[in-house]
Task: inverse folding
């Protein structure tokens, strides 16, 4: 089976298509010190060995950028995609600092403040960055930005997963406009612990097909053609290896057609 990041989402008119799975760097900045450095490096190495070629970070994630860059600098630069986020009022200053921390060029820059997009557009046009996106945990905010700004992608950090499908209108708009959708936060505590009535009911249906709830949760977002990528946050090599193993396990198509599951997801 192809590596996780190499399995393409369903074909559409989307212009910018990141790899299907990526490592979210929110946990790579902790803990501080040499032990944290070593764990982060091992986690990135494990992700790379598992086939992941998309790595997301932010200046807000502590030492994440520096640690990610150190781990990736030994890899062929053309093999992977790096995204980071604008922090502060000046996007160029933010990007320059991120590039210095990473020791790498940045492919995709994500922002939330609409005022920075003209500068990001200029940096995209002059080749400093390859793509511009918006990030939020509010699908309605991203929906407004997709209408108003020429974006390549959005990163939705909540509101679209196996237990929460509020963001479908955003995904539909993105598909119509050729904007790719990256989602994160799909392995929620409710999914991992099956501690709600809905989660337990969905888990029971999945188990009849030999599928675990986390496995289904990782596979679910790409059922929508706008979703090109799923970010998986991990704080250890063992965690990212386990998640990558789940990604490689096929989910039977008949699960998604199960009448009970369809009722639970409606």
Result:
């Amino acid at each position: 089976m192809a590596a996780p990041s190499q399995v393409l989402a369903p074909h559409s008119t989307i212009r910018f298509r990141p790899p299907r799975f990526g490592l979210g760097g929110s946990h790579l900045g902790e803990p501080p010190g040499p032990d944290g450095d070593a764990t982060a490096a091992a986690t990135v190495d494990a992700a790379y060995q598992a086939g992941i070629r998309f790595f997301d970070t932010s200046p807000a994630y502590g030492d994440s950028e520096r640690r990610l860059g150190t781990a990736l600098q030994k890899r062929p630069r053309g093999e992977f995609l790096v995204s980071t986020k604008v922090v502060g009022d000046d996007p160029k200053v933010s990007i320059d600092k991120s590039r210095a921390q990473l020791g790498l060029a940045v492919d995709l820059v994500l922002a939330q403040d609409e005022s920075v997009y003209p500068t990001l557009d200029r940096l995209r046009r002059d080749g400093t960055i390859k793509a511009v996106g918006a990030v939020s945990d509010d699908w309605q905010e991203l929906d407004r930005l997709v209408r108003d700004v020429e974006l390549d992608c959005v990163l939705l950090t909540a509101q679209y997963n196996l237990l929460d499908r509020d963001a479908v209108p955003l995904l539909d708009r993105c598909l119509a406009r050729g904007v790719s959708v990256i989602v994160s936060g799909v392995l929620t505590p409710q999914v991992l612990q099956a501690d709600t009535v809905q989660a337990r009911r969905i888990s029971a249906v999945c188990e009849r097909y030999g599928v675990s709830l986390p496995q289904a949760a990782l596979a679910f977002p790409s059922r929508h053609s706008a979703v090109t990528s799923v970010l998986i946050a991990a704080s250890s090599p063992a965690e990212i290896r386990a998640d990558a193993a789940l990604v490689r396990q096929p989910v039977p198509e008949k699960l998604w057609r199960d009448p009970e599951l369809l009722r639970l997801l409606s």
